[in-house]
Specification:
Oligomer: single chain
Strand content: 5-15%
Shape: globular
Mean pLDDT: 82
Distance between the termini: 51 Å
Low-confidence stretches: 410-415
Number of strands: 11
Order of helices and strands: EEHEEHHHHHHEEHEEHEHEHHHEHH
Structural class: alpha/beta
Amino acid sequence: MLLLQSASKPSRSQGRIGLAIAGGGPIGGMYELGALRALDEAIEGLDLTRLEVYVGVSSGAFLAAGLANRLSTAEMHRIFITGDSFEAKFSPKIFLHPAFLEYVKRGANLPVLAYEWWRELLLDPTGSHLSNVVGRLGGLIPTGLFNNAEIESFLRTVFTGRGRSNDFRELDRPLYVVAVDLDNGQAVRFGGPDWDDVPISKAVQASAALPGLYPPVEIRGRHFVDGALRRTMHASVVMDHGVDLMFGINPLVPFNAGRTSQRADANKLSESGLPAVLSQTFRTLLQSRMQVGLAKYAQQYPGIDQMVFEPNEDDAEMFFTNIFSYSSRRRVCQHAFRSTLEDLRSRRDVLGRILERHGLRLRDEVIDDPQRSIVEGLRKPTRQTETTARLRRALDDVEQLIRERRPNRRRAASRKPR
């Protein structure tokens, strides 16, 4: 489904494009990767690795940080989906390592609480003070089931080689990774003022620390959790940069059980148990908050075109797939790819006019191909040394500089007196 807000007061576009990617767990990230691949393939003139500004939240921060570091959607597909990349070797197990240290740390307090329990019971048989001890039992529960340290380690490895950087300040384009300070509930933009010295890998780890699943991430003595707790996409960060066009991707939408016949058990979500109820609740909160924000942005930023891609409300595939089901990642990525192409095809006329205003064009041969696969646009991976990878990056920079200067020369020539 495409949420489209056309600029009510369009001005002459400078081709400045921004990207905001919301969270959605590992499978949500795979949906976002499929949608990004579709945009990459279907829109001529769009280079997702050279946009004006990037904002990522939770799982979306993985992809935003990759694109800002000039990792193409094709290369990220090879890393996370097909596994045939020479850039990095990814294992889904890094998301599911039990937080043993956290368990030990919390369990160490058990003997003290047990002693206090028996002491209060002996001194006060009525049990009037036992409630104080019971209240402290919550301190024994781990703050996260899984350890997210290996996630940070993997990203650090990816971002410190082949001409890339793990430093916000060294990137070609602004990147913001949003997390929430657990102790005051405020959103923090890593990559922004006073927070741009934090390693990108650490910022992404913090932004993706979903409470209950992963422990808060300590940075400068403060503890950070999932950035989606404050806002869904933080798209205003993109638009505050003065872009002309904003692309957004949100993989989590509430499911409309009355509009699907894909699953017999989808008619009543309550019959699917607590996980389905909690998922529907969480998705409803996230999407309603995002829709309110987009409506507000239409008034605040009347000169900016906004396009947000997300699953359809009857998409049982996205709702019922376990967020940690990595065996489903290829299917979900392809599903998102096809769904996004369908959105582009169904809104071709209005999108064509908007994209043309920003120097972009829909590739009809891509969006009109009903059998197109996400792997068709992938070239065979080539092995590169660190030196050749850096050289290729430098040559890409030179080529981009030449492309940017050509239009300026043409305009200057047209102004010369004849």
